[in-house]
Design goal:
With about 525 residues, the chain is of the alpha/beta class. It is about 30% helix and about 15% strand. It has 16 helices and 14 strands. The chain has an eleven-stranded mixed beta sheet with strand order 3-4-6-8-7-9-10-11-12-13-14, with helices on both faces. Strands 1-2-5 form a three-stranded mixed beta sheet, with no helix packed on it. Helix 11 packs across helix 12. The chain is globular.
């Protein structure tokens, strides 16, 4: 089930700046850990019994509470245990979206704080120990819901798939000294969901000893944080990081985060008696004060996240599990094209390319313009998108694989499909979106956000699904592990499924020399 959303024509521009109670007795904890009966839509969990639904291919259980509602005095506190219930709880509709403003197309405008719910999708006959995939949705840690991403195809391929809602933006990452620990609550919520999975996976036919944590964009950076967080140790066995280079993201400094919080506190008039005052401020007021296009992250240097992910990977002080890490070949095309869709905007003109590069690269712009001359590209927008993709995504993605592979088995991919779906209901772009940010998601999930993939791409989609579920099952792929300086990067598309010369394609040496 997905939410129906209304988004403004200009919201795509923010895309990458940056988705029946019955009777009965409460189950015991022992009963909750029993293996699932094949095809049953009634399952006992550690907190109570749930009834889901099935279409004959997969079973779906939605809106299961994994933590106590963080409302009232629990606002900006660590997630507490969910309450037990008696009888059979209906699990046929997702829980409310966590509080978030209107913004990205994957956003679901909401003022709900009672939002810590998860969803489980399993093969219809999940009576064995299936690999478990825990999906952390993207949206810059500002937007989105777990149920936006339909996981039925992953489940039909043989995985038990869990998605969750977690606190976002101002409710999940506010760093004020009067609210200790509030700067990483979104990550703590995810850890609470992972603990729930360890305790309950077997009841749904999953293997609690084989859990893969998987995320894209903001969700991918959360996976970077779980790799780096000692409090996530033992909660997962493999990791998939999509379009989220751990080498450059995943955390903020305390100074950055507290400056953000100071602005919010002042805007809502809570400079005095901050904590009790802030807990009384309406959610809508907090969302407005925080802003629609912030980029929250947990604070590094805390018990939750002692080291920034890059430093953790560099020193080997992280949770060493097999990792599948990847990036899209044309990440920034989505952002450049999105800016064209803003009201009154139009495609980038040739004379705007140079100033745009100078704005971003300052005194290094001449070198960039020489290496990426406008004459080498069909349009200014494509030129700028290539520059930004290489600098902001491709180079740090390869750096991430290099760091990881020094300590743990690592596979790297590049999603490079050229004929990909565009955003449903939006005007056709001025140039091909190709493998833009998020472009791989329609091949793994059912997403109403995008137009349908073409029939002839179904074999490619099926291979993607087999690869992701296969990695969750074994920690391996059908291409070699990444080793050494150049490593092995597999290009994934309907035309090619082979090694790519990633360093040459994305001018890696140029960017490293440029600093």
């Amino acid at each position: 089930m997905t939410h129906t959303k209304s988004v403004s024509a200009g919201s795509v521009a923010a895309l990458a700046l940056g988705l029946v109670l019955g009777s009965g007795l409460a189950p015991t904890a022992a009963a909750a850990t029993r293996p699932a009966q094949s095809g049953s839509t009634v399952v006992s969990t550690t907190h109570g019994t749930v009834r889901g639904s099935t279409d004959g291919q997969v079973r779906s259980f939605q809106g299961i509470p994994y933590a106590a509602p963080p409302v009232g005095e629990r606002r900006w506190r660590a997630p507490g245990p969910a309450a037990d219930w008696t009888g059979v709880r209906a699990a046929t509709a997702p829980g409310p979206a966590c509080a978030q403003p209107q913004g990205l197309p994957i956003g679901v405008p909401s003022e709900s704080e009672d939002c810590l719910y998860l969803n489980v999708t399993t093969p219809a006959g999940a009576d064995g120990e299936r690999p478990v995939i825990v999906w952390i949705h993207g949206g810059s840690l500002m937007y989105g819901t777990g149920d936006l991403y339909g996981p039925e195809r992953l489940a039909a391929e043989g995985a038990v798939v869990v998605s969750m809602n977690y606190r976002l933006g101002v409710m999940g990452f506010l760093s004020d000294p009067s609210l200790p620990g509030a700067d990483g609550l979104g990550l703590q919520d995810q850890q609470a969901a992972l603990r729930w999975v360890r305790e309950n996976a077997a009841a749904f036919g999953g293997d609690p000893r084989n859990v893969t944590v998987m995320g894209q964009s903001g969700g991918g950076y959360s996976v970077c944080d779980h790799l780096a967080s000692p409090l996530s140790a033992g909660l997962f066995d493999r990791a998939v990081v999509q379009s989220a280079p751990c080498a450059t993201g995943g955390s903020r400094t305390r100074a950055e985060a507290e400056a953000d919080a100071e602005r919010v506190v002042a805007a809502v008039g809570c400079e005095k008696n901050t904590a009790p005052c802030m807990r009384k401020v309406p959610v809508a007021t907090l969302l407005e004060a925080y802003g629609a296009f912030n980029e929250p992250r947990p604070v590094a240097g805390t018990k939750l996240l002692p080291l920034a992910p890059a430093q953790a990977l560099r020193t080997g002080k992280f949770n060493r599990v097999p990792v599948l890490v990847g990036v899209n070949h044309d990440e920034e095309r989505g952002r450049v094209l999105g800016e064209e869709l803003a009201p009154g905007a139009e495609p980038m003109k040739s004379e705007e390319y140079g100033p745009a590069v100078r704005e971003r690269f300052g005194d290094r712009a001449d070198a960039v313009l020489k290496r990426y001359p406008l004459s080498a590209f069909p349009s200014a927008g494509e030129a700028l998108a290539t520059v930004l993709t290489d600098a902001m995504w491709s180079v740090p993605a390869l750096d991430t694989a290099r760091l990881l592979s020094q300590w743990t088995p690592t596979r790297m991919y590049e999603f490079s499909e050229r004929d990909t779906p565009w955003f449903r209901g939006y005007p056709a772009p001025s140039f091909d979106q190709r493998a833009q940010h998020m472009a791989e998601l329609p091949y793994l999930f059912d997403l109403s956000l995008f137009t349908d993939i073409k029939d002839e791409q179904e074999p490619f989609r099926e291979r993607m699904l087999r690869t992701w579920v296969g990695f969750a099952a074994s920690g391996r792929t059908d291409w070699p592990a990444f080793r050494g300086e150049r490593g092995y990067v597999q290009s994934l598309s309907s035309q090619t499924w082979t090694r790519t010369d990633f360093t040459a394609d994305h001018r890696y040496a140029f960017w490293k020399n440029l600093g």
